[in-house]
Structure formats: structure tokens, C-alpha cells
Automatic annotation (TrEMBL):
Record's protein name: GH84 domain-containing protein
Taxon lineage: Eukaryota, Metazoa, Spiralia, Gnathifera, Rotifera
Transmembrane helix among keywords: no
One of the GO biological process terms: glycoprotein metabolic process
Species whose genome carries this gene: Adineta ricciae
Cited SUPFAM superfamilies: (Trans)glycosidases
One MF annotation (Gene Ontology) recorded for this entry: beta-N-acetylglucosaminidase activity
Pfam (any one): NAGidase
Signal peptide bounds: none
PROSITE patterns per the UniProt record, alphabetical: GH84 (PS52009)
Keywords: Glycosidase, Hydrolase
Keyword Hydrolase among record annotations: yes
């Protein structure tokens, strides 16, 4: 793997663009099989550790600034998450705080929740959990 620092790069934003349904076929809905592969179980240690490994790999390349973006995903919690978290926001904040702490509280850490605008909020943004 090339050195990101050699090119002056020290920021990582994870927003995969190789997903054709994220780019060229964005109007097409995911099949059920595809959608279950995209979900994170916020209460899963396995999923949290997989996310940590992803950040470790890029930290080793010299990345110092981070973004964790949960935008434009389904806003329903799994039954496993519902037993641990009081709300969808609580689940996302728990994972975000865990990663932020894991990265030793970097100076630049961007976060975008799923419900960031009225279109993504249940009912209205002001009353969304």
C-alpha cells in the first residue's frame, strides 16, 4: 500500500463509490439480500471490531482526520439493537463515541447521523428521536 503521507493526505472519509446502486444505478432499490449485507448491528462487538480494523488500516497509512457517515441508510434498528439502545440516535452515538475514543480523540472527527435532514427524519426533524 502506498504512503498517503507522501501525497500530503491525512484524512479518510468512508463513503464507498464502487456500489453501482450508490452511483450510476442510484434509482434502483437494493434487494432484500443486498440490504441485509449493508447493515451494521450497532450493539455487535463483531461489527464494532470490523470497523476498528478498517480505521486501524488507514491509521497505519498516516490518516489523522476522520469521518463516520451514517447518512442515507435505513433508520430502523435490529431487534438486537432495540434491546440495548433507547433510540436509533443512541445506537449511532454509541458506535461513534466508541470509534472516537478508540482513535484517541482525534482533532478532526466528522459525524453525520442518518436523520440529518427532514427527508430522512421520521415525522419531522424537530420531533425525531
Amino acid at each position: 500500500m502506498f504512503s498517503c503521507l507522501r501525497f500530503g493526505l491525512n484524512t479518510y472519509v468512508y463513503a464507498p463509490k464502487d456500489d453501482v446502486k450508490h452511483r450510476s444505478r442510484w434509482r434502483d432499490l437494493y434487494s432484500y439480500e443486498e440490504s441485509i449485507e449493508l447493515n451494521i448491528v450497532y450493539s455487535s462487538e463483531k461489527d464494532l471490531n470490523a470497523l476498528k480494523r478498517k480505521f486501524d488500516q488507514l491509521s497505519n497509512c498516516g490518516c489523522e482526520h476522520w469521518a463516520l457517515l451514517f447518512d442515507d441508510i435505513e433508520h430502523e434498528m435490529s431487534s438486537q439493537d432495540q434491546t440495548r439502545f433507547t433510540s436509533f440516535a443512541h445506537a449511532q452515538v454509541a458506535v461513534t463515541n466508541a470509534i472516537y475514543d478508540y482513535l484517541n480523540k482525534p482533532n478532526l472527527f466528522l459525524f453525520c447521523p442518518t436523520q440529518y435532514c427532514s427527508r430522512m427524519a421520521k415525522s419531522a426533524l424537530e420531533t425525531s428521536p
